[in-house]
Design goal:
With about 325 residues, this protein is mostly beta strands. The protein has helices at about 135, 255-265, 270-275; strands spanning about 15, 25-30, 35-40, 45, 55, 65-70, 75-80, 85-90, 95-100, 100, 105, 110-115, 120-125, 145-150, 155-160, 165-170, 175-180, 185-190, 200-205, 215-220, 225-230, 235-240, 245-250, 285-290, 295-300, 305-310. The chain has a single domain (about 10-315), classed as Neuraminidase.
């Protein structure tokens, strides 16, 4: 039986880390307690174990979003409306790593992931850039895709996705998991030796409930998937058998109902997401396992100026920079 079965956290027991962060959508955690949060004022903010903060990178605009850390400790950062992938060195220098593929702009870049072979996986929310919100409103839009960058260079390995969000490989790296933000579901693709992907299949629940959009996720050492749900201001765990449980949530049912009605009418606006912010949690978007034992969880968000933290009953799956 999973050690996570039945695990919940009271909202009043959630901790806070950092201060004055601006759109800290994604978090990267190191074993020594150092944290990195994407920050709209530059590229990222480093939070040292003692609490000191430093904002790094030039102001690139374009909503710095999903991040990965390589073996050298540098960040690979996706920018949404900026349409680029940046490398941010630990000393604050930054460079554009990728901004096009097959002679065309990338689109709204959402997330980056580095696997054990140092291959870089990049998710593109939509080819609509910088007006990516148009793709959110138009339910017919399925132009998200996934890029693999390896020794052969960048190439598209999956296409026709609905608002591709975070992507990650499981412990055995047999499957690539990918979130379709709307309607809010997790897909997985078999990964072949050459990096190409097999046929997609759904994984986990069809829905997390009304407004149960999915955003960022992370694996733990038992193979469970921890998923942030921004509009429900919550966190769920999906078990290997596809069942799931809520760890915590702070929903506003009236705001969710109004959002769904606007979505159905095709008049949804970005500001409608903000109305779903809860009293304790405001639009959590990602989760990372960190600390020496990888059991301290940190969550980023669209609406909070701090990171949320709590202790998990199981360690996270070590990422490349944590091994």
């Amino acid at each position: 039986m999973s050690s996570v079965k039945g695990f919940t956290v009271e909202l009043s027991h959630l901790g806070r880390v950092g201060h004055d962060l601006v759109r800290p959508e994604c978090v990267v955690a190191e074993r020594d307690g150092t944290l990195w949060a994407s920050d709209a004022r530059g590229i990222a903010t480093r939070i040292d174990p003692g609490g000191a903060q430093a904002r790094l990178g030039p102001e690139v605009g374009g909503e710095p979003n999903g991040m990965a850390m390589d073996r050298q400790g540098n960040l690979i950062v996706a920018t949404m409306s900026g349409g680029k992938v940046h490398r941010l060195y630990r000393d604050g220098r930054a460079e554009v790593l990728l901004d096009s593929i097959e002679g065309k702009p990338l689109g709204a870049v959402n997330f980056c992931f580095i696997d054990s072979r140092d291959r870089l996986w990049i998710s593109i929310l939509t080819r609509h850039c910088p007006s990516w919100w148009d793709a959110v409103v138009d339910e017919r839009c399925r132009d998200g895709y996934i890029v693999l960058v390896d020794e052969k260079g960048p190439r598209i390995v999956a296409d026709d996705l609905r608002l591709t969000n975070e992507v990650r490989l499981d412990a055995a790296e047999r499957f690539l998991y990918a979130v379709e933000t709307v309607p809010g579901r997790l897909l997985r693709f078999p990964v072949r030796q050459d990096g190409s992907l097999g046929e997609r299949e759904p994984f986990g629940p069809e829905s997390l409930g009304p407004g149960g959009l999915m955003d960022g996720f992370a694996f733990d050492a038992e193979g469970n998937v921890w998923v942030a749900s921004p509009c429900r201001n919550g966190l769920v765990v999906i078990f290997p058998d596809g069942s799931h449980q809520v760890v915590f949530e702070d929903p506003r049912p009236d705001a969710i109902e109004a959002l769904l009605q606007k979505q159905a009418s095709g008049i949804l606006e970005m500001s409608d997401l903000g109305t779903c912010a809860g009293g304790t949690l405001q639009l959590p978007t990602s989760i990372a396992f960190g600390g020496p034992d990888l059991r301290t969880c940190f969550m980023g968000s669209l609406g909070m100026s701090q990171l949320v933290t709590f202790r998990a009953p199981v360690a996270g799956l070590p990422l490349v920079h944590q091994r």
